[in-house]
Amino acid sequence: MHPMETLSVHILGCGSALPTTKHNPSAQALTLRGKVYLVDCGEGTQLQIRRQGLHFGRIHTIFISHLHGDHCFGLPGLLSTLSMLGRTGELHIHGPEGLTEYIDAHRKSFLAECSYEIITHEHDYRKSEVIHEDPSLCVRSLPLSHRIPTMGFLFEERCAARHLDKPAVDFYQVPRCCYPAILLGESYTAQDGSIIPNNRLTKPGRIPRRYAYCSDTEYFPDLIEQVRGVDLLYHEATFGEDLRARLATTAHSTARDAATIALKAEVKRLLIGHYSSRYTDVTPLLDEARSVFPNTTAAQEGLIIHL
């Protein structure tokens, strides 16, 4: 597969609210076909973008899960930097209710002469719906259960359902003007009146790759069907079972909770993160998750997963 076609997840930050020397607050970047999609934007995100060799000019769309500071305090600085770099193309930012007010407050103070247009989109965090579409990706919101309005995101690659079998269309002398109809599933009627079935003229396309981002949330069984079978699930694992008592007041998940969701949803791979600052070593969290769902990876800044 050509590198531009690789759907990659870059971990820019995987810690929780309190700063540590080991982890940045939440932020990720998805890259596909030359575009960068930013998911959450905690403090320090700009430096992580630089460290990972990503390009500010290729940031296409931003998705904010909720308005807790460790997921959005890096956003005003990033928006300012994009203006200083001379961005001209409009920037769309998606998130739950309150997003526009948050952006507008910073826009009035620091972005009065912004070089580009910022367009915010607020979505109902209580339902799943398509919130963004472009030629590369379709993005659906995922309801989560946290202390304030919070949503996750399901990213699904856009790729053709079928491809032309070039030797076959050449053999049957199919005119180019018929290609679009064939790609939509139609058969071809030759000049002698014979019908060439579509499956002789096309090959099945690649199955779209899917990535689900779920942070922050308590254990939420409603999520299982929404993420069933995804190629990669990122699910917060703020605590281990040793700190389960804290879940009642924080509305977070343990590593075991994350793994249970992954197991029941039959996902292909689990990625845990959003670690509490209480853990200087996340190995116990990884071990706990793997005891339920073996194909689990612990997020670390600088990690890149290619789907």
TrEMBL record:
Binds 2 Zn(2+) ions. Keywords: Endonuclease, Hydrolase, Metal-binding, Nuclease, tRNA processing, Zinc. Zinc phosphodiesterase, which displays some tRNA 3'-processing endonuclease activity. Probably involved in tRNA maturation, by removing a 3'-trailer from precursor tRNA. The gene is rnz. Belongs to the RNase Z family. Its cofactor is Zn(2+). InterPro entries: Metallo-B-lactamas (IPR001279), RibonucZ/Hydroxyglut_hydro (IPR036866), RNase_Z/BN (IPR013471). Homodimer. The active site is at 70 (proton acceptor). Gene3D superfamilies: Ribonuclease Z/Hydroxyacylglutathione hydrolase-like. Its EC number is 3.1.26.11. HAMAP family: RNase_Z_BN. This is Ribonuclease Z. It catalyses: Endonucleolytic cleavage of RNA, removing extra 3' nucleotides from tRNA precursor, generating 3' termini of tRNAs. A 3'-hydroxy group is left at the tRNA terminus and a 5'-phosphoryl group is left at the trailer molecule. Zn(2+) 1 binds at residues 66, 68, 146, 216. The keyword Metal-binding applies. PANTHER family: ZINC PHOSPHODIESTERASE ELAC PROTEIN 1.
